[in-house]
Amino acid sequence: MTGLRHRIAFFLSALLLSIAAPASAQKMASVDRNEINMRSGPGTNHESLWLLGRGYPLQIIGRKGKWVQVRDFEADKGWVYRPLLGDKRHFVVKVKVANIRSKPSTRGSIVGKALYGDVLRTLERTKNWVKVQQEGGAKGWIARRLLWGW
């Protein structure tokens, strides 16, 4: 009977993990065109709320056909046409100014600065730091807590 209990416990644990994982996982995407509209509803007949530039990271929170409902780093919500999004990882700066450093440490020299709302291409990640590339600018490390995205 002990083996049966063990298998049941294992099965229930696996089931709970499979149910809980999607709730905590964030499906992310980034804008894959020079500029796209974020709309008030799923279709081109809905009002354009924002213009989003290439690389802008978005969290996917819903779907309707080929349209996805998204949330940005300021918690604004809207709809975008899914084929206009890609999977290149980007972050956006969520603080007034973020130092870009030569290594993943506050001891690294400052090689550049990124401003609130700047979109940065993700090159590498550690638990607490992200190596980024500014478009036409500095490449280096920023503390993860200063960024939003993936």
Kindly describe this structure.
By secondary structure, this protein is an alpha+beta fold. It contains one helix and 14 strands; from the N terminus they run H-E-E-E-E-E-E-E-E-E-E-E-E-E-E. The chain has one helix at 2-24, and strands at residues 27-31, 35-39, 48-53, 57-64, 67-71, 77-81, 85-86, 90-93, 97-101, 110-115, 119-125, 129-133, 139-143, 147-149. A hairpin with a 5-residue loop joins strand 12 (129-133) and strand 13. It is elongated, with a radius of gyration of 19 Å. It starts with a helix and ends with a strand.
Low-confidence stretches: 6-24
Q: Main sheet?
A: 5 strands, antiparallel
- Helix- and strand-based class? alpha+beta
Strand order in the largest sheet: 6-5-4-1-7
Beta-strand percentage range: over 45%
Question: What order do the helices and strands follow?
Answer: HEEEEEEEEEEEEEE
Helix content: 10-25%
Q: Using DSSP, what is the number of strands?
A: 14
Q: Taking Cα atoms only, what radius of gyration do you get, to the nearest Å?
A: 19 Å
Global outline: elongated
Chain-averaged pLDDT: 88
- Separation, N- and C-terminal Cα atoms: 46 Å
Tally of individual helices? 1
Give a topology summary.
Layout: H1 2-24, E1 27-31, E2 35-39, E3 48-53, E4 57-64, E5 67-71, E6 77-81, E7 85-86, E8 90-93, E9 97-101, E10 110-115, E11 119-125, E12 129-133, E13 139-143, E14 147-149
Short description:
The protein is built from one helix and 14 strands.
Give descriptors for this structure.
single chain, 150 residues, alpha+beta, 5-stranded antiparallel sheet, 1 helix, 14 strands
